[in-house]
Fold this protein.
Amino acid sequence: MRKIVLDTETTGLDCRTGDRVIEIGCVELRGRQLTGQRFHAWINPEREIPAGATAIHGLTNEFIADKPKFAEIAAEFMEFVRGAELVIHNAAFDVGFLNNELGLLQHESIEQLCGEVIDTLRMAREMRPGKKNNLNALCVEFGVDNSGRQLHGALLDAELLAEVYLAMTRGQNSLEMDFASPAVDYSAGGTRQRPPLVVLSASADELADHARVLGEIAKESKGKCLWRDLDGAGQA
């Protein structure tokens, strides 16, 4: 199944009050491997970016002024994610913003474009109840290097989340059946056919070495050598 790990940056926290998407980052997973395929866009939100939002992601009004509007990148974005499972941290937030942008253009919703939406925040809360489960905390928990993450950034965060998601779900693929193994041979009576046992006898030199070692053990243990006693009982 093709999966797309997705993250967004926005002008604020609530699309219902006019906040808009200003960055989208996506990376593709196939067969639990990053393929190198990605989608990334900075977007002119057609409104001012508050200073509080800039402090989080570093995107300024000046930087974003000449970037395309969502309508200009919508077709490429929709084509990239179409039919895939989405992996998103705090999925309700990103899906809400993307559906708002798509709705303004009267396009299909994310739920119509894609298959399942996997929320890694929900997964993390089930795995780590009562702990911090933001992206930085999960990178630390699962050994993902996030040293380059000074600010939020949609593409970098999507790449980090992909590594976290693979670590979180590693055990799900550990049980595999080996269908290439040869079938067990059973006789008509239901008894498994076993090859004849091969018995290798010790040589005279090996027996002598064995007796010598037992003698040394008996000497060190003041005559308490169980193996020599057993050898004697067997010979008797």
Notes: The chain has two domains: 3-172, 204-235. The chain is about 40% helix and 15% strand. Residues 7 and 113 are 16 Å apart (CA to CA). The mean pLDDT is 85.
